[in-house]
Write a structure and sequence with these properties.
Helix content: over 70%
Shape: rod-shaped
Number of strands: 3
Strand order of the largest sheet: 2-1-3
Radius of gyration: 40 Å
CATH architecture of the largest domain: Orthogonal Bundle
Number of helices: 4
Largest sheet: 3 strands, mixed
Number of domains: 2
Distance between the termini: 27 Å
CATH topology of the largest domain: Helix Hairpins
């Protein structure tokens, strides 16, 4: 039985179309992945911004509370000094002096803590500004990615439709027996269903292709790599003229 013949040009074109379709499908899938990634980044930046804002608010509240405490302490010292002037005995006088000294010590500690708190508030103010800028940049990038994906998607789908029609037309040029073999390997390997033979090596798995197999290919007979199962074809530059 004479084996069916298949055009090398057809196999080469089929391989090119399969690779292009695979690339387009990857680009189509990449769009939603990019969108999910930038949206996750925005959500992360929003969380960090809210966390820093809350910490900054807590620092301000703590600083304000200590200043209220300090004011109350200063008022108490003023009150104790008034009582000191009207002390009825040395014992009372000394007790009031001790209370004033203790309150002054407390106020001194509060003053140091307030200064430290004000430094923290300033530091948080800087961190809030940085987090806000980071969030704005993340949102800007997210909008850009959304716009790019929305712009590219219809173009990619149009190319896919065009190439799918070209693939159908090219597959129709295969003899029925060859089409059956081709369909089987495409179902199994997808875009990797075909491979060129370069210097007697399969470009798919890089394994040696026997000389007799190459000779059959030159006669237009469908041949498959015994190692990886790909349908083989001769590169354009190696096809003999005439």
């Amino acid at each position: 039985m004479t084996p069916p013949n298949v055009s090398t040009d057809v196999l080469r074109t089929l391989h090119r179309i399969h690779r292009q379709l695979s690339d387009l499908n990857e680009r189509l899938d990449r769009g939603p992945k990019q969108i999910r990634a930038v949206e996750a980044h925005v959500a992360h930046c929003e969380g960090q911004f809210a966390e820093i804002q809350n910490a900054a608010k807590a620092a301000r509240v703590a600083s304000d509370a200590k200043q209220v405490q300090l004011k109350a302490g200063e008022d108490k010292i003023q009150e104790l000094r008034l009582k000191l002037n009207s002390a009825g005995s040395n014992r009372e006088y000394q007790a009031l002096k001790d209370q004033i000294a203790a309150q002054e010590m407390t106020n001194s500690v509060l003053t140091d803590e307030i200064l430290e708190g004000m430094d923290r508030v300033d530091e948080f103010r800087r961190k809030v500004a940085e987090a806000e800028a980071t969030l704005a940049k993340a949102r800007q990038k997210s909008e850009a990615i959304h716009g790019e994906v929305e712009q590219q998607e219809p173009l990619i789908r149009g190319d896919l439709e065009r190439l799918q029609a070209e693939l159908t037309q090219c597959e129709a040029a295969l003899p029925a027996d060859v089409k059956e073999l081709y369909d089987r390997v495409v179902r199994h390997r997808g875009e990797d269903a075909l491979a060129a033979v370069e210097n007697q090596y399969c470009e798919g798995c890089h394994q040696h292709v026997p000389l007799n197999v190459c000779a059959e290919m030159m006669l237009g007979h469908p041949m498959f790599c015994k190692t990886c199962g790909r349908m083989l074809y001769i590169p354009e530059e190696h096809v003999p003229e005439g």
